[in-house]
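This part of the workshop introduces the protein records we will be handling. As an example, a complete record with its sequence and its structure tokens follows.
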Amino acid sequence: MKPITAKFPKRESELTTTIQRVLNNLKNNPAYPDLPPALAELEKKAPVFQVALANAKGRDITMVSIKNDEKADVLNLLQIVADYVTVKSQGDRTLILTSGFFVSNETNSNRNLPPSVEILEVELGPSGEATTRVKNVTGVKAYIHQYTTELPNLNTVWAGIGTSLGSYTFEGLTSDKRYWFRVVVIGTDDQRGFSPVVTRVIQ
């Protein structure tokens, strides 16, 4: 049997609620007297992340990039706190739930949800090449690495390639031209999740 661990949904729409629930439940919780510094840092980051979310709704590229950076920070802090809760609770389901986190074997964590991609890396290579890469994505059976040469909108037509790997190198791209990249992840139940969109000017 897998050990029970503290988990949390990583969907962007749920992060603000998750952060607030964890902050409320862990403060003054006698089961967790020696809270890690990451929790105090998370409390500081929470309003910054909320502002970044609001600013990114206009789809300004810079604002979206800032939001993605802030999101990566709060996800990292949440994971540190979740790991602390897992160790401190010694796998006790009830103790984990009192922390505001879900437990790893319950359906209300991530089951039946599309795979979640938090960070997309785009690395420029030699002239005309770019490599897209996503890491630590669970429950995935395939990836579709995509690009477009126009600012993405609802009607954008994406070019891409399907693969079983989390990274792919595009070749033959036009130098000095701006491209937008994303990765579509296909889950075991055929649900689809999408990475953030990252833009680069090709070398």
